[in-house]
Amino acid sequence: MAKSPAYSVASVPLRIMGVILMVIGCLWEPNLLWAEDSSDHAEGQKRVVLSAGQEVQGDYFAFGPHVEISGTVHGDVYAAGGEVLVDGVVDGDLIMAGGEVRVSGEVIQDARIAGGTVTLSGKVHRNATIGGGDVHLTDSSHLKGNVVIGAGNLLLGGSIDGDARIGAGNLTLSKKIGGDLAVAAPAIRLTSRASVEKNVRYWSENEPSIDDGATVLGTVTGHPIPDVFRGKEQEVRRGVVGMKILAGLVSAVSTLVLGLLLLRIYPVFTKKAVSTIQEQPWVTLGVGGAMLVGTPLIIFLCMASVMGVPIGLMLAAMYVVTLYLGRVFVLLWLGQRLMRRASDSTSAAKAFAVGLVVYFMLSLLPLVGSLVTIVTIVTGLGAILITKKELVVKLRNEQVV
Fold first, then answer.
1. Exposed/middle/buried for residue 264 (C-beta within 10 Å: 0-12, 13-18, 19+)
2. For 85, which of 18, 121, 146, 384 is 20 to 30 Å away at the CA?
3. Which of 21-35, 309-323, 332-346 is most confident?
4. Cα 366–Cα 372–Cα 378 angle in degrees, nearest 5
5. pLDDT band at residue 364, thresholds of 50, 70 and 90?
6. Residue whose C-alpha is closest to residue 143's, from 189, 174, 107, 89
């Protein structure tokens, strides 16, 4: 449990992340809105809606300024936007992010939620991970598994059957937690309606405020805040850690959206690029490394002359975009290796999400994270170049170009 204070550090940038997600949702072009197996998503709509009574077999994807899922999805749901509402039934996992997020429906498996403002008033039958600036679990909410929450302000008014791991600026508990409560927060309050069936462990400079009538069946144990989180020098260090986590979260969300779009729009090229990584790993790594070093030199030479400046600028823009895109194919390959599934349209999306989560966690590790990031970028760059060359050669042989 020594890592619980890290949740507090991670919660610092979550409000900013929610605002960024809201801006992203509001700026999305209408023709980028899409959802599987739904006839209500005509191109040009600004509101993505799965109406009550509609059913979707398989996974469901919904991105846009306003997303509303009121029907039933027999699979996983991936949703992101400025405002996201889920008041239907999700048979699988729920993965969602947005500026304002509300969940009043039922999630049969796990829920992964991030937003500026998060309101949960429904049911989650398994585990939940929630991050946000303001997080409110209302009196009608019921989470049957374990919960991990990072928030600026957190109000727990619903029931949690399992353990709760919390990092927050302010925590108010007003209902039952069936397992242990581990919390890192400057301000902790248990109201008269609060109940903890097992132990309470907290990391804070202040003792929790426990109202008369609140019950804790186990022990209440306080832990000092580690020295690493004290002092002005450490404040700077905490800020650096927070910014790193913020940058990673924003990058993860944007990569998730970009990757799902690529899977949808360019499935053949994506499949071929992943096959290239699988069949020619060392060649892919070598080509990517050569281009990673060689392209900036070419750009520099172009920029050295007035006539070459436009070419250099175009090459630089293409170079940056290619570096960013390349990660998608590597993460899909990683996810497929972990899941060991064929890359059909459904499993490819799940595999990509798994690969992204693993990559995000590894990228936060000291030293190892930098190495993983470099290898991922180089491999992705090589996969794109080799795949493009093979496709061009094939088209020329067929006299298409």
1. middle
2. 146
3. 309-323
4. 140
5. low
6. 107
Orientation of helix 345-363 relative to helix 231-265, angle to 10°: 160
- How far lies 128's CA from each of 158, 170, 388, 398, in Å? 13, 19, 41, 52
Between 304 and 375, the more confident residue is 375
Supply the DSSP string of 156-197, one letter for each residue.
E-SEESS-EEEEEEEEEE-SEESS-EEEE-SEEEE-TT-EES
DSSP for 48-98?
EEE-TT-EEES-EEEEEEEEEE-SEEES-EEEEEEEEEE-SEESS-EEEEE
Closest CA to 175 of 152, 189, 154, 196: 196
Q: Which sign does the torsion angle of CA 265, 45, 258, 360 carry?
A: negative
CA nearest to 99, candidates 120, 85, 116, 86: 116
Closest to 222 (Cα-Cα) out of 209, 211, 206, 237? 206
Euclidean distance between CA atoms 163 and 218, whole angstroms: 13
Torsion sign across C-alpha atoms 38, 40, 45, 50 = negative
